[in-house]
Fold these 2 entries.
Entry 1:
Amino acid sequence: MSVILEMENICKQFPGVLANDCVCLSVKEGEVHALLGENGAGKSTLMNILCGLYKPTSGEIHLEGELVRFNSARDAMERGIGMVHQHFMLIPTMTVTENCLIGDKEGNAIKLDRKEAGQRLKELAERYGMEIDPDAIVGTLSVGEMQRVEIVKALFRGAKILILDEPTAVLTPQEARALFKMIRALTDNQFTVIFISHKLDEVKEISDRVTVLRQGSVVGTYDIDQCSVEELARLMVGREIRFDVIERRQAVGDTLLEVNNLSLHRQQSSEGKLLDDLSFEVREGEVLGIAGVDGNGQAELVECLTGILRASSGEALYQGNDLLKLSTRDIMSKDVSHIPQDRQKTGLVMPMTLVENFALQDYYKKDFGKGIFLDWIGVEDRSAKLIKDFSVKTPSTYELAQNLSGGNQQKVVAAREISREPKLLIAMHPTRGLDVGAVEYIHNQLIDQRDKGVGILLVSTEMEEIMRLSDRIIVLYEGRAMGCVRPSETTIEEMGLMMGGRKLDDIRKGRVKEAPVEENIM
Amino acid sequence: MDLLQTIGGYLFTDIRMAAPVLLAGLGLLLMNWSGLLNIGAEGIMLIAALAAVAGSHFFGSVWMGLLLAMLAGAVFGLLFAVLTVTLRANQTVVGAALNILGLSLSTTLNRVFFGIETTVTKVDAYKVLEIPLLSKIPVIGRAFFAQMPIVYIAFILVPVIHYFLFKTKPGLNLRSVGENPRVADTLGINVYRTQYLATIVGSMIIAAGGAFLSTGLLNFFAEDMVAGRGYIALAAVIFGKYRPTGIMVAAMIFMAGNVVSNVLQVAGVGIPYTFLTMIPYVLTIIALTIFASRAVAPASLGKPYKRG
């Protein structure tokens, strides 16, 4: 097999983030080359560069030995690179054929020959073991079928290298198997497939070689035969994780929040659950960590517990109330605080001043004014105190939230939520995108709260953070709990496997002969 | 026989009245399929109505009037495109601005051109073009085949635009821009150029509708003479489910209200005429409230597109 594609020293600088740091990738013709990495490892950025959507800050792309420069997706397509995005680039109201013919420059420039094109599509699909109905309206197809249309569309437009971005994320296991068959049929016919995934089993099953990315850099490229799933997990997650679990000063108290059989169905679709039968509890003075790759139900879990989404079934008992049945304000008024996942979208109102942002959560309460009037002097004093206590760096209490740095914005959110003296604190990605100092600060605040007896539900995709702060960790995968572990009793390998969709029980069963299974601490 | 004659007469009036609304609707349709929501048809029709009279007056030919009207429409279309496509301004706001601009500019220019007189300047208007033989068909002959040329053009445009939108590649490309500009972009379509073209051509067709008001239905310009037809066209597009034939039917139905109101006025029923003239508008509102939610608009209608 000859090398068909060579990406050399690709760097991509986004404002404040180096998404790709001198990444080199070499792909051989006719292989399935997997790109493995956690969220934010730079997989999608690299592929968006390859398919012409992003321009690299530096670096070169060689295609069949020739230096190429893509200015648009069309440029890349004309050189035979087709990408199937996670979010399908299809128009649901049009037929399969129409979707494939948009922007088509071949043949008659005016007349739309649906019949002829449909025939060609059908033949093309059949050649690689796929079945499609060219006249079907795309919106009526299942997700798996839509994906097939995307693949056929790419082939129809002359793709030789097919990039599949997390293709199984939206598929049922059966559909995924069909996809793998398709991929095999394609590579048998000299097509090259680049397969982006964070699911270890899949990568092991389908790929010939794998390139592992971590934090924007390449860890290495390996022949899949020479890697075990465990090794892949370690490579993906990395070794240099700090295990210095922070000393605790207080014993864990009574159960504060008890979640039983929480499920959330996908909207407008019977198949697939966003949250599937979750049960756990958070105790006073305990940090329960929710780990997992982004998009495996974490956001939905938090939104169900804070009254933003309505759960399909289950209960979340807290102080004798079922949180799943209460409105957001009712929940918040029962000593629950919420640090939302996105400080700029849901945590703060960016064009409002800090004083106003500090008053957002509790403005209606007696402390904040009389009747419909706000006690601005009191609110300002309060804000000044919080800014001082939480050392928010701002020119004034009346600065607009949008003018603060990310770290200081997060401090404002944390200050507002923690100052409410909650009993239960739900924090999602509390340190995402912050510098080391700010991370440390927020972590210490969370620890303080824990030591005061507050129960904390910490959702994070940062392994280090989860391992450092949590007393127990639940790993979510496609809305299901893969297992519940204590940080001191688990390994990175085990965490990686769970994040990749292996159940804790199954992982440990494999080792049952060497060591006794640890007690179930769920 | 007399009754049939009367019905034929109503049909004749309905078709004639529907033509400008139909033209405006078809113009809007092209814009809508490129993803642009333009509520400014009223303003474009007004400036076109004045331009048509001015052209007809100064050049002595109604066709020169039409040309000038379409030119004025193109300028308004270009203005809309620059503001909404290139500068990504809010389309509804710009459309409203076009309406105000069209009303005030046509009023002002009318006074500049023709002075403030009580006698209106009458100009060359379209002549009825009778199709030999066909116009002799009893009852419907005159309604369908003894109309002014622009009426024929309006109705011929229905199948032409339908064919363009749904049977040609450029039509597919246009629709893909309106449905999802990002998809169109990744497939190599120049989204901005498509939207500019659709807006300018669409505005010219709307302008032809406006021109027919002042040089077809009437032969002079009166201030605010469009009288909400631009908005009725907007409603016709929605009621017609974004299909040319649908718009045609909608325009005929809405304007039939106009015919009914005329008939009732002439018949001298005891209702004040101001209420009777409301009929087409009330009909529009009723139709919209019933059918608007069922219409399938292009998915990206009204959303500005930013590349990259």
Note: Chain B has a mean pLDDT of 90.
Entry 2:
Amino acid sequence: MKTPSKFKRRPATALVAMANSLSMGDDVPEDELSQIISAVVLNRAERAALLAAIRASNDPDSGLAVADLLTAFAIEAAEAEAQARDADQVIGQWAQRLAAGALLASFGAAIAGTLSGGLAFGLTLLSFSGFVFATASRIGGRVKMRRRAQERESADSLARHVLEAGKLKPDGK
Amino acid sequence: MFEAMGLETVIVSTIIGACALSFGASAYLFMRARPAPEAKDLDKIVKNAPYHRLHNVLKVEAGS
């Protein structure tokens, strides 16, 4: 595979630049680094460009530095994923159960005749909307959880490939 | 202490309390799931990355 002689300024090359800059002791803002990494790991073109840039790099350590940044990002994503899962299972599930219990209780009270008329109707409506709201919020949380999981897996695999690419010499041998 | 309360009051307050808790928990989950605001524009970060550190390592085009 031939690599271009000059690389464009794009997230993949920016990541290599940041990794080099970090290994030389410069300061790179953490939020910018995370934003660049998440832009690289989920984009196929950027992943390919990153591997090509690592292969073309004259510094054998830059692959290692980039792979380490990617692994650190994967660990952060795994932590965020675990937190989102905890919130979903501890809070989301119980919010849903409470609302469902309230819905059943209001049905029961209406059927038994303890509550009647507008009050029974209002409570049923309230608990039903609570159940719908809880379900929607759980779905939103799970979407975020899946995205973090995808980021973690992508960053992990890209880190492995970057290490492999760093072993190859620029002429492909 | 609770004898004076009617059955209706007990049931209504239980259901409303459960609903309030459920609403509060759901609102908290919604706030958590909200995507964090992007710190900066990605193009700007790409443009301002420390390319001068790649001087001898990798050839990068000068312009964007």
Note: The interface with chain A takes residues 7-8, 11-12, 14-16, 18-19, 21-23, 25-30, 32-33, 35, 38-40, 42, 45-47, 49-51, 53-54, 56-61, 63-64 of chain B (CB under 8 Å).
